[in-house]
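ARCHIVE RECORD
Type: protein–small molecule complex
Small molecule: 4'-deoxy-4'-aminopyridoxal-5'-phosphate
Source of inputs: curated submission
Record status: active
Notes field left blank by submitter.
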Amino acid sequence: MPNNALFYLTSNDMPLVSHADGIYIWDTTGRRYIDGCSGAITCNIGHNHPTVKRAMVEQLDKVAFSYRTQFESQVALDLANKMVDLTDADLQKVFFVGSGSEAVESAIKLAIQYFVAEGQPERSKFVSLRPSYHGSTMGALGLTGYEPLEAPYRSITIGSVKVPSPDLYRYREASVEEHIAAVLRQTEIAILAAGAETIAAIVLEPVGGASTGGRMVTRTYMEGMRALCDRYGCLLIMDEVLSGMGRTGAWFAYQHYGVAPDILALAKGLGSGYYPIAAMMAGKELVDAVGRSGGFMHGHTYAGNPLACATGLAVIDVMSSEKLVSNAAEQGAYLRRQLEQLAEKYDCIGNVRGIGLLQGVELVQDKVSKQPFPAAFNAFDRLTALAKGRGLLIYPRRCLNGLEGDHVLITPPLTVTASDIDDIIALFDGSLA
Ligand code: PMP
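STRUCTURE (tokenized, with ligand):
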């Protein structure tokens, strides 16, 4: 590939994308791939959807961009109201941004500005889980619990108090209840050690994505974390950048546990790959407190522009009219059963985990020891390359804590049918073999 000026292109084998439709994507040589991971767990409604294209063109014909200090747009108001209707929690205010990292960044700033407004400026520390991934900007990176990503910037990121993420899949000695109780205890000890009066928020993903390959927690854990926030006066921020917008078979992953956040970060599925749009949602009381003390001092130029909001609105319309949330639950359960059958067949599958169409497959040397493959073996990359060679895209991640196996995420668009899943499973089976 001559004169390649793209900074991140490391391999000359990377196919050039040509076009896409539904769950399929083609390269310029005419090869077809099943998008078994929705790009980066993003294209929730599939590719090339006519309703979204129409809505975007209609909006482009009117106005693509207007700046939020000069105009508000009806589509932004409509989208915000629609999103509030989708949640069943105290999350009546929506702040639009352009990426998941920006949504997390906004949540960090809102929490701090809230406590400044409340006369508690000392509350500026965050508690987050290890392993975890919250984004690539400095604030979000500071919360991220993954050593190689954080380490170079540790002296200049905000940092956070890292506490262990519950691991229902690997620990051996105790029951689930004992494990959860121990993790909650460790979290409380860490909060007290850091100074409970200095903590602004606990940040967590209700269902792990890239960091933990679809790891779930339990209702008791979520209730315990909520109780810690209430006991020590800090906020609960949930990062649903990946798990939100129907992916798990509920509009929001927190709904599986019946525990709601004070601030919610959303991204990927909201624009579904059609336009970068993300959002932070928060309670009215919280936002009003910040408003009384001068307003939320934060923003990005492109945030909440009419084209972005028209896209988000059309995506939600498609999700609702095509009943994609219930399809994610139904087809997710089918995908899970099929993956569990593969897990019985292959010794290298340590476990299958997740919910809805967010399913993770952990790769181990053998089922009994559940030892991870050596890092140099790159199990996640190998399997992903084998699958891609067969025409299936899956999402690979190296294990983040060095204790468990690498994993791949199987997260097709929420439009998948059972027969699409059969195709995905057949290609995945061949790749594992
Ligand atoms: N939080 C989570 C849970 C994510 O999965 C991601 C992206 N993988 C981000 C934040 C960052 O989102 P973005 O890449 O859009 O900045």
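CURATOR ANNOTATION: Residues 99-101, 104, 133-136, 205, 209-210, 239, 241-242, 267 surround 4'-deoxy-4'-aminopyridoxal-5'-phosphate (CB under 6 Å).
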